[in-house]
């Protein structure tokens, strides 16, 4: 309860630092304070003077007042109580301004209703307030805060300069005396700072003043306290922070440095222990997160991840199938192309041999014709060639001339020309083919060799296992004929 | 200073021991850590305000952690664990920021 209370109180205090907000807050608080006092006292008088402020404030304050009294009884309340006295004076003083100025009667009315001490205090406050109101000191916040504690001493409060110091000090020391009965707590450290800041001479006064306010804060004042704390949280008390800033030291670094100073007490050990726990948990959590394993995830997240993974896997599988198909197509395509190349090469070789573009070798026959008496006519040579072709000769050479489909025998007997080149005896035919077929074919009666003999020549046929036709003939590209495009495709 | 040393000790211990968080606690540990951070900043601010109280600090630390974890646990039971943990983180983050702003105001007067 106090935990959040203190922090949030402090939070609330944060923004309203500015004096502008404080003033209205204080003024607002004034009626509320009065209200608190009033309800406890008497209903009738209240509505008279503070009707407007009553209605809103009425509902809120009592609740706060209820909480507030509860806190002071508890441990954590002390810190709250501390600031309380500060603020209390402020609003009250303001109240007193109003009251003093306008309705002193109300204060009188309210006071009798309150139990024993209060009337005195209130009256004292009023008196002090009036006194202060007369004096310039009232305007000053610190001075006003100082005024309150004096309220208890009652008589001569405001004018004395020393008392402000004690009032400031006790706030810090209050927790000390209250919380740490056995030994000094953290705040013990703060005190020296604060005390020297406002007043160097305060030192001795502290000892005297501190115990008083502490006791005052605890025992006699509770009622009064109950009022101020109620006002405090509501007023978004710049009170605590302003007081802290003013009293506990103008420089936060000093406070921080003092707190960082190694010291062995309960608060430090406790903070150290909690910080150790925090650091431990922090590291563990960071490591856990860094591991990024699935153990710590919720079911919904796991399902989502599973879905994503499955979807992703499906997409990848589809992509893999597509790539596989593409690869197969490329492979088969290259196969087809290679086959086509092979076929083309084979075809080129065959046609090269047949057309005389390529030299060739193989089994065949070598026919030598001489002209011992008479001359061999071109018709005889043509007859010899056709006989060889009929017998299956595939490549034929005559005296270094490649004989192709377009070769022609011209000239006259004794000066036979082949494709315009005149041949000289002896005529040597080289034909690649089956020797066992070509040889007998040439020798058959009435055949090629018989015709050669009739011309007065002489011929011999010599079968060989390997003959070479080395002569080639350049085949001119066809000028008019083009291949018929394949119709199957 | 001792608190800083404690923090370092805790970090080192976590690094050395390398404990594994029980599966049941894994969703709540980060929230608890954030809550503890919030308490830590609150304590620092209270210290600067001069109203630091170790008992308050301990209570706020533990209650924040437990409450945050409890809220998330409840959210898990209700099927809105993600949203509630986000809400807790947002609230605690706002608190941390406001506390940090107050601390900054104390230290830098701005």
UniProtKB/TrEMBL annotation, chain B:
GO cellular component, one term: plasma membrane
Superkingdom assignment: Bacteria
Lipid bilayer topology: Multi-pass membrane protein
Entry keyword annotation includes Cell membrane: yes
Location of this chain's protein in the cell: Cell membrane
Pfam name, any one: DUF1290
Key words of the record: Cell membrane, Membrane, Transmembrane, Transmembrane helix
Transmembrane region(s): 27-44, 56-74, 80-98
Family: Belongs to the sbp family.
Official protein name in the record: Membrane protein
């Amino acid at each position: 309860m106090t935990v959040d209370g203190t922090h949030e109180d402090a939070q609330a205090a944060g923004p309203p630092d500015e004096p502008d907000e404080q003033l209205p807050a204080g003024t607002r608080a004034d009626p509320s304070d009065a209200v608190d006092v009033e309800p406890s006292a008497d209903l009738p008088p209240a509505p008279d003077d503070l009707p407007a402020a009553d209605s809103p404030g009425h509902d809120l304050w009592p609740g706060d007042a209820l909480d507030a009294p509860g806190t002071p009884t508890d441990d954590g309340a002390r810190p709250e109580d501390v600031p309380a006295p500060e603020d209390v004076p402020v609003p009250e003083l303001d109240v007193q301004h109003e009251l003093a100025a306008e309705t002193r009667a109300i204060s009188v009315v309210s006071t009798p209703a309150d139990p024993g001490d209060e009337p005195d205090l209130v009256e004292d406050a009023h008196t002090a307030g009036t006194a202060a109101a007369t004096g310039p000191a009232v305007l000053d916040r610190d001075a006003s805060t100082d005024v309150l504690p004096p309220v208890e001493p009652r008589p001569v409060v405001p004018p004395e300069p020393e008392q402000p110091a004690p009032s400031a000090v006790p706030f810090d020391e209050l927790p000390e005396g209250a919380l740490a009965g056995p030994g000094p707590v953290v705040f013990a450290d703060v005190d020296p700072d604060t005390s020297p800041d406002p007043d160097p001479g305060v030192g001795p006064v502290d000892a005297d003043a501190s115990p008083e306010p502490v006791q005052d804060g605890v025992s006699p004042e509770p009622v009064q306290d109950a009022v101020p704390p109620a006002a405090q949280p509501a007023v978004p008390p710049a009170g605590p922070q302003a007081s802290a800033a003013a009293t506990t030291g103008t420089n936060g670094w000093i406070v921080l440095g003092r707190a960082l100073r190694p010291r062995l007490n309960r608060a430090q050990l406790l903070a150290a222990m909690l910080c150790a726990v925090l650091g431990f948990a922090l590291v563990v959590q960071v490591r856990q997160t860094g591991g990024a394993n699935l153990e710590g995830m919720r079911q919904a997240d796991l399902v989502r991840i599973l879905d994503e993974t499955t979807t992703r896997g499906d997409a990848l599988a589809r992509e893999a199938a597509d790539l596989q198909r593409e690869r197969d197509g490329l492979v088969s395509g290259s196969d087809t192309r290679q086959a086509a190349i092979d076929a083309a090469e084979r075809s080129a070789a065959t046609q090269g041999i047949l057309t005389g573009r390529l030299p060739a070798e193989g089994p065949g026959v070598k026919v030598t014709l001489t002209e011992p008496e008479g001359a061999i006519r071109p018709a005889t040579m043509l007859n010899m060639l056709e006989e060889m072709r009929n017998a299956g000769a595939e490549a034929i050479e005559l005296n270094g001339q490649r004989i192709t489909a377009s070769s022609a025998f011209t000239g006259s007997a004794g000066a036979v020309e082949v494709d315009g080149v005149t041949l000289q005896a002896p005529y040597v035919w080289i034909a690649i083919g089956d020797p066992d077929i070509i040889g007998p074919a040439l020798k058959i009666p009435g055949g090629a060799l018989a015709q050669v003999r009739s011309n007065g020549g002489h011929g011999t046929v010599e079968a060989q296992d390997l003959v070479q036709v080395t002569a080639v003939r350049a085949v001119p590209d066809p000028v008019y004929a083009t291949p018929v495009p394949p119709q199957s495709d | 200073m001792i608190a800083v040393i404690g923090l370092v000790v805790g970090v080192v211990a976590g690094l050395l021991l390398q404990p594994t968080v029980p599966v049941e606690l894994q969703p709540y540990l980060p929230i608890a850590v954030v809550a503890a951070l919030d308490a830590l900043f609150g304590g620092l601010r209270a210290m600067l305000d001069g109203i630091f109280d170790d008992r308050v600090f301990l209570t706020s630390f533990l209650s924040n952690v437990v409450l945050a974890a409890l809220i998330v646990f409840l959210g898990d039971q209700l099927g809105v664990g993600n949203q509630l943990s986000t809400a807790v983180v947002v609230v605690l983050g706002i608190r941390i920021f406001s506390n940090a702003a107050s601390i900054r105001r104390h230290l830098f007067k701005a």
